[in-house]
Structure formats: C-alpha cells, structure tokens
Design brief:
GO cellular component, one term: plasma membrane
Oligomer: single chain
Strand content: 5-15%
Shape: globular
Keywords: Cell membrane, Electron transport, Ion transport, Membrane, Oxidoreductase, Signal, Transmembrane, Transmembrane helix, Transport
CATH class of the largest domain: Alpha Beta
InterPro entries: FAD-bd_8, FAD-bd_FR_type, Fe3_Rdtase_TM_dom, Fe_red_NAD-bd_6, Ferric/Cupric_Reductase, FNR_nucleotide-bd, Riboflavin_synthase-like_b-brl
GO molecular function, one term: ferric-chelate reductase (NADPH) activity
Catalytic activity: 2 a Fe(II)-siderophore + NADP(+) + H(+) = 2 a Fe(III)-siderophore + NADPH
Number of helices: 22
Structural class: alpha/beta
C-alpha cells in the first residue's frame, strides 16, 4: 500500500522537475486564491465531520458505561434464577434491539465477519467489515468523492478544472494522512475514549489508506491530463512515460513485500520514505502543516510505546520471563515484571524477547496473575494510599502461547531443548492494553477455542471472586472450552485448580469441555455436573438457547478463538437474541458482549444437564448439601490428572451436542 503512494509521488514529482511552468497571470493568481480558500473550507468540513462522529460515539459509549454501572449497583445483593429480581434488565428496548441485531453488530452479509480471507498461504487480505463499519466507510468514501468535485467549474473553457481537481485531490490525500497515522497506533487515545477495539481502528486505517492512494493517483492523473492539454499529446505522453518507469518498479516491489512475513517492517520503512517524499513535495505549500500533524501523531504514539517499555521493565532490575514447554505444542510464559501493574481481565500485552525474536514485538493475552501483597505478610489493613495501590499489583503474570511459525516456533523449540523443558530469559513487556468487565451482567457465557482460553480464564476468576464477595450482579457463569485433545487441559491446570477451590465457585460456575479429536472415548471423563467433558464439537446455538432458559438478568456472551467460531457465536446470538451490544476490543480474539433476552418461553435447567439422568442430579445435590470440600477435591485432582489419563465416559449428550 505504501509503495503505491511512493510510486504516484514519483510520478508527480519527476515531471515537475522536468518542466517549468510559465509565470502566472493576475487572473490565475486570483483563481488560485479562490481555489485555496475552497480547499481550506473542505478541510474544515472534514474536520467537523470527524469531530461530530467522535462526539456522537463518545456520548453513546459513555452512556452504555453509565447504564452498566447502574445495573451492577442495582443488583449487587439480589437476583437468582427463580426470584426474578433482575428480570427488569432482561427486557430489551425493541427498537434498540433491532438496530443492534440488524446494523450495529451484524456482519456485512449473512454470517462471515471475523474469518479471514487468504489469497494464498502468504497473502492475507483481512476480514469483511460489519454492516455499521461498512456504512461508515461507504459514507466516508462518498464524502471524499463529493469533496473532490464540488465547487469546481468543470465547464471552464480555460480548463482550469485540471489544476483545481489536482489541488483538491492532493489536499484531501494529505489531510487523510492524519487519521491514517492516528488510527494505526495501538496507543491511539480513541481506543479508550470510545471503547472501540484496535482491530476496528486498524480496519478503518487500511481503508483510509486505500482512499489516500486513490486520491494520490487522481492527483497525478489530473496533473498529467492538464500537461497533455497544454503541451500537446506528443510531449505530454513522453513525460508521462518517463514518470511511470520508477512507478512500475516500486509497485512490483510493493507486491513482493505484501507476500512476505516481514511486511510490517517493510511497511513502516516505506511509510517513512513516502512521508519524507510528501514533505519535500509540499515544500512552501500550506498543506505541509497538515502533514506535520500526521507526523506528530506518529511521533507521539512511538514515544508512548518507548515510555511504556521503560516504565514497566526498568527500575527494580529488568523484567524476566520463564518459558516452559507444555503438551500440545504450547508454552507457558511466566513474566516477572520489574514494575508490575494492577491486573484486570481482558488485558493483553506486546512482548519483546531479544534472545528469540530480536527487536520484534508480539501480542498475547494475559492469562493469569499471582497477586503478592507488599505492605506486610500479616493480614493488616494498608496504612496509606500507596500501600493500597501496591497491594493490588501482581508479582507475576502468565501467558499461554500456541506454537505456530516464526517467533512462537523458535520459542517452543528452545524451551523443548532446554534442561527441564524450560528456560529463563530477559523479556520486555509493553502494555497493558484493553480490558473488559462483565460484572454488571446476571448471566455470562464464555466461549473459547484452543489457546483462546487465555482470554476467558481471568474473567472466570474475576466473576467467581466478585460473586463470593457480593461485588457483582453476576449469578451464572458458563465456560465453554473447545480443545482438540485432553492434554490441552495441562495448559491451565494450576490456575483452574485454584478456581475450582474458590469460595462459592459451585454456586455460580459451570464448565463444559468439548474434545474434538479424542484418541479414545476413555479419555472423556466428567467428574461432576458442574465440570463436564464431551467427545464432540458443540452446537453453539443449542448451548446459548439452553442457557437463555435459565437466564438471570442481562446476559453477556464472549468468544475468543478462531474467526469461524466467532462468526458462529455471533450468528447464534443474533438468531436467538432480541439485543446485541457492539464487540469489545481484543486484537488476539473476537469478543462479543450481547445482552441476551429470553425468547424461547419455557426452557429450564442448566446447560449440560443430561435429560434422563435424574438420579445422578439427586446424588450431586446430596453431595452439595453435605459440604463444599467433599466434592471439590476430586474435581481439583481430576483437572490435569484423571482427565489426562482416562476414566469413565460421562456427561451424556445434552441438547444433541455435536450431532
């Protein structure tokens, strides 16, 4: 993309160097002054359009934040499946629900949205935008077309419209470089201001880049047409041919770069070259100040990255990482950060590991944190505000990383070949970025596929702890994890053992495990009705519909995994819900946060409860009445123990899952 910008700049700059225009006449000077004023007005209209969109989104998003906060406070101490105390929050506004279902959270066509398109194994062309995103992009594209043609006299006998159109398209191309640069950065302030994911901004960044290229091509085309009209076809086309020689070379180079895994570095390098070329092209022109604004946006974003790195990783020593190879082609990375922060569910980081990936950074979800109070070993209250803040910081944070190619493959092989299957190295952490909070929802359903469990485990711990302390509206949490083999349970075994031992966990949490490629049915073992395993792929729609039958209050559905799973969950939610909130931000997985409302009448019971297994339900209930510890211990030992070594097949086949 950037190489095309450079090519059209060369196409425009070279003829300027080869041909000298005659001194302008007074009439031309007056006309140019009028054209400059028109271009200035167009820039103001574009800026006001952006300001209006941001203001509208700001009001919308912060209104939602306020409503969620009120809903959480209103339901802290009541609400169960039977008492209906949270029923008010399960009744949707009909018009708003339709808008969310058919526009705000709808895919462009029928279903596909997050699953990527690949022209080849090396060329990924991205994902389809949603309907609301498409509406915005189409509107912005139409606005740019309109601004390219309005106020220009296309019937002028002197053919000044060539110069006017050339200037207008050039001004708009430079003006659009400001949002192009701003939305490209992960420290973009609009991410937290508007609660819109970096993925969405990156999508808009790519489409604005295409608009800039089109306007740059139009800028050059109008200049060429004007030269041909003035100089005649022979001389004019000779200059066009001369200009396009370097263009073809650069376009070819850009195509090669797009197919390479080093595209990001090539993209940045070419962006710097293109920006420098535009700066020289705009020498002495007022539009240079617009380009300066784009450069400032880029410089601030890069400075913030450097600041985050220094602040987090230097001071009390240097951040370290312990990398441990796990079954199922994965590694567990335990980060001991020099200056840790307060961990929140849904956060992700960019990790630099020089011994493996040199200067490159890679995004990963934070899966776990071990809290370590710093104001004393005894259970005493913090003595100061600083003590309270320090008490909330994390002693270590952990990641689960699936082995793929490149960086992750090198890291896995190094751990596998190290003594004990692990190694310690220096690592630098940039972050944290993003977070989500589901504590205002009465019912929460979390879907994960494979390593996507890293995004959901922190939510499970957060909601169970908040429920035990009476600090959330949540009364039901269902975790659905889809894995290929039972050995993948080892990835989160130490953390899930802690969760299964948490106070009041059994009252709120249900875990459903779906093993898609078991070696034998003997590997499938369900220790209780609250932790069940099935040798099949889940029927996502049936699971959601069943959960809605016992819904308490507003319901959130989150998914982190493959693009196809995200599309399946989104589709199932839209089919069965009356309302759907916009996706939350997570560059490592697609998250939906719908407010589901009951639409199926008389469905009752919990997900995963075998329809004909009444005796087992009675036995489980009897165990619960005897006490918490009696059934807890087998479940804790089962996760990563019997679950990996076989056992009896259990759990039945509720709702015809996997059929």
């Amino acid at each position: 993309m950037t190489s095309i910008i450079i090519s059209v700049l060369f196409a425009a700059a070279l003829p300027y160097a080869l041909a000298q225009d005659a001194p302008p006449t007074p009439e031309q000077i007056a006309h140019q002054t009028w054209a400059d004023n028109s271009n200035t007005q167009i820039c103001k209209y574009t800026a006001w359009t952006w300001a209006a969109i941001i203001a509208a989104m700001l009001v919308y998003r912060w209104t939602l934040h306020l409503l969620r906060h009120v809903r959480r406070l209103a339901n802290l101490n009541h609400g169960t499946t039977s008492d209906g105390r949270q029923k008010y929050f399960s009744i949707p506004n009909e018009n708003y629900a339709k808008a969310k279902r058919h526009l705000i959270s709808a895919p462009l066509f029928r279903k596909r949205h997050n699953r990527e398109f690949h022209l080849s194994s090396a060329m990924n062309v991205g994902t389809l935008p949603g309907r609301l995103q498409t509406l915005f992009l189409a509107g912005y594209f139409v606005m740019n077309i309109a601004f390219c043609v309005i106020t220009i006299n296309w019937h002028d006998s002197n053919k000044t419209y060539y110069d006017d159109a050339r200037n207008r398209t050039g001004v708009l191309a430079v003006l659009n470089m400001i949002p192009l640069f701003l939305l490209a950065g992960r420290n973009n302030p609009l991410i937290w201001m508007l609660d819109i994911s970096f993925d969405t901004y990156n999508l808009i960044h790519r489409w604005i880049g295409r608009i800039v290229v089109i306007e740059a091509v139009a800028h050059t085309t109008f200049w060429m047409a004007g030269k041909i009209a003035i100089m005649g076809p022979a001389k004019g086309w000779a200059m066009v041919t001369t200009a396009m020689v370097p263009s073809n070379q650069l376009i070819f180079t850009g195509t090669i770069g797009t197919c390479s895994f080093t595209f990001l570095h090539v993209h940045i390098a070419l962006a710097i070259i293109a920006t420098s070329a535009v700066w020289m092209h705009l020498d002495t022109l007022p539009q240079q100040s617009l380009l300066l604004g784009a450069i400032i946006c880029w410089a601030i974003e890069r400075s913030l990255r450097l600041y985050r790195l220094v602040r987090t990783n230097l001071g009390n020593g240097v951040s370290k990482a312990e990398v441990e190879a796990l079954p199922g082609d994965a590694v567990r990375v335990t980060l001991r950060i020099a200056k840790p922060w307060k961990f929140q569910p849904g956060q992700h980081i960019y990790m630099y590991m020089p011994s493996v990936g040199l200067w490159t950074s890679h995004p990963f979800s934070l899966a776990w944190s071990d809290e370590q109070p710093t104001f004393g070993a005894e259970k005493t209250l913090p003595l100061s505000r600083q003590d309270l803040f320090a008490a909330r910081k994390s002693a270590s944070m952990s990641l689960i990383i699936r082995r793929r190619t490149g960086f992750t493959d090198k890291m896995y092989r190094k751990a596998e070949l190290s003594a004990g299957g692990k190694f310690m190295t220096t690592a630098f952490v940039e972050g944290p970025y993003g977070h989500q909070n589901f504590q205002s929802y009465g019912t929460v359903m979390l879907f994960a596929a494979g390593v996507g469990i890293t995004h959901q485990v922190p939510h499970v711990r957060d909601l169970v702890a908040a429920y035990a302390n009476g600090m959330c509206a949540t009364r039901k949490v269902t975790l659905v994890w889809i894995i290929q083999s039972p050995e993948h349970l080892e990835w989160i075994r130490p953390w899930m053992t802690q969760i299964l031992g948490m106070e009041k966990r059994r009252e709120i949490l249900r875990i459903l495990l779906f093993v898609t490629r078991p070696r034998s049915t003997k590997e499938i073992h369900s220790p209780s009705s609250s932790v069940q395993m099935f040798p099949a792929k889940p029927d996502v729609g049936a699971l959601i519909e069943k959960e809605m039958g016992g819904q308490v209050g507003a319901m959130a559905v989150s998914v982190c995994g493959t693009g196809s799973l995200s599309d399946d969950v989104r589709g199932a939610v839209r089919e069965r819900s009356a309302g759907l909130l916009a996706p939350l931000g997570n560059p490592l997985g697609k998250v939906l946060q719908p407010i589901l409302k009951p639409t199926v009448g008389s469905l009752t019971g919990a997900i995963g409860e075998p329809a004909g297994d009444a005796m087992r339900s009675v036995q489980v209930q009897a165990k619960r009445e005897k006490g918490y510890e009696e059934e807890e211990k087998p479940e804790s030992e089962w996760w990563g123990g019997k679950a990996l070594g076989g056992g009896k097949v259990g759990g039945g086949n509720p709702l015809g899952l996997g059929k």
